[in-house]
Write a structure and sequence with these properties.
By secondary structure, this protein is an all-alpha fold. The chain has helices at residues 25-46, 52-59, 63-66, 68-87, 93-113, 117-146, 151-180, 182-203, 215-221, 225-245, 248-256, 260-287, 289-310, 314-340, 347-376, 379-398. The protein is globular, with a radius of gyration of 20 Å.
């Protein structure tokens, strides 16, 4: 393979770089390889949603127990996010990314061959490490590939893989499982990770470490006001989202009173809108991260509150679910970019804090949303979403202008 280091060398990959007028072919190839990796990893993460019943039956466990494979991935990922950038030290970042993809391949293969629940959990734990390591490095790597002023655009392409995987993985997993069995579905995610790894080997330039983090460095970063605001924005908006989005289906069933087929169409609209929001979020984040954060939060708050007020009308509910999807599509681009702007000198450490914040928000949102829906009905979680998203708007207005 021809060494492409020179194409990204010096200030071209530095944080001081101005936004290039146009990316060359090597830059596009490198960014697309990162998007392919996000698609492969997130597909594997969400796959169990469509496999729980046959997986539980085959392993002789309950569906509730089988569902803990998702918890294992998230829990291990939260811990690994704090340690990943410390443990990799001065290793070449390209080698680290390729190694994480190789870990994903091995973990998915182990999960597909698991003969008992504990082997399955071990495989999913390995996936959690690969996921958290990739996302902790993602913003820093993208900034080096495309320049700091185009980080939002670059992250929009990378997180496009997340949106596509969120739409495709559960449904494709269920179809493949019915056709070839759940183990074949798991094995196919190993194939996706292997393809992503090949693209990384072929496209990524040599990325020597330009920093070496200690755990103290990561925690020291939390003293910065911008980092505190950025982490709080993630916690508020994503806790609100996951508290409410999980219960959109019960809301549509009980309040909008639509059947399963119509609900599926509404959720498909959510997914398609999230892809569009992903692209819009990238461009808006590069123009003004303060405005991008405010718009993301306003749209989510309005969509959730309007559903509570007018969600009984089918057409209105469909439109508002799509609007929520658009806002959610913006969030994975806007929130990490917002956090990274507070630490241009420590992007990798900031990436660790970003992943931890997301994982904590997901956990709190799921638990809190479950409590609210059990005690206050299907409208309750959406009200929480609106309140927390509205709080994020206030937080966005506190962000320094840029």
């Amino acid at each position: 393979m021809t060494d492409t280091t020179s194409q990204f060398d010096g200030t071209t990959i530095g944080l001081e770089a101005a936004e290039p007028s146009a990316w060359n072919a090597a830059t596009w190839f490198a960014v697309v390889s990162m998007a392919a990796t996000s698609f492969a990893l997130v597909s594997a993460e969400f796959l169990p949603a469509g496999l729980l019943t046959p997986m539980a039956r085959d392993l002789g466990i309950s569906e509730g127990t089988a569902g803990q494979v998702v918890t294992a991935t998230a829990s291990v990922g939260a811990v690994a996010a704090l340690l990943s950038n410390v443990l990799i030290g001065r290793l070449n970042r390209k080698a680290v990314l390729v190694g994480l993809s190789a870990l994903a391949v091995g973990s998915n293969i182990l999960a597909s061959l698991a003969t008992d629940f504990w082997l399955l959990l071990l495989g999913r734990a390995g996936l959690g490490i690969a996921l958290s390591g990739f996302w902790a490095l993602s913003v820093a790597i993208v900034a080096r590939l495309v320049g700091a002023n185009a980080t939002g655009r670059g992250m929009a392409i990378v997180t496009l893989g997340v949106s596509l995987a969120t739409i495709a993985a559960p449904s494709m997993g269920a179809l493949i499982s019915d056709w070839l069995g759940w183990r074949s579905a798991m094995a196919m995610t190993a194939g996706l990770a292997a393809l992503a790894m090949l693209l990384q080997v072929l496209s990524l330039p040599t990325l020597p470490a330009n920093t070496s983090n200690s755990l103290a460095d990561v925690f020291r970063l939390t003293r910065r006001g911008g980092i505190q605001l950025g982490m709080l924005a993630i916690l508020l908006l994503m806790t609100g989202h996951f508290a409410g989005s999980v219960y959109v289906r019960p809301f549509l069933e009980r309040v909008t009173l639509i059947e399963t087929r119509s609900i599926a169409l509404a959720l498909l609209g959510f997914g398609i809108a999230s892809v569009i929001g992903n692209v819009a979020g990238g461009r808006m984040a590069d123009a003004s991260i303060r405005i991008a954060l405010a718009v993301t939060a306003v749209l989510m708050a309005f969509a959730a509150l309007a559903l509570v007020l007018w969600g009984a009308h089918t057409g209105v509910a469909f439109a508002l679910v799509a609007l929520w999807g658009f806002a959610f599509g913006m969030a994975p681009v806007v929130l990490p970019t917002n956090l990274s702007r507070a630490a241009p000198d420590a992007l990798e450490a900031a990436g660790s804090l970003m992943v931890v914040s997301f994982q904590v928000a997901i956990s709190i949102g799921a638990v809190f949303g479950g409590y609210i829906v059990d005690h206050y009905g299907a409208v309750g979680p959406l009200t929480v979403t609106a309140l927390l998203a509205a709080s994020t708007v206030v937080l966005a207005l506190l962000q320094p202008r840029n």
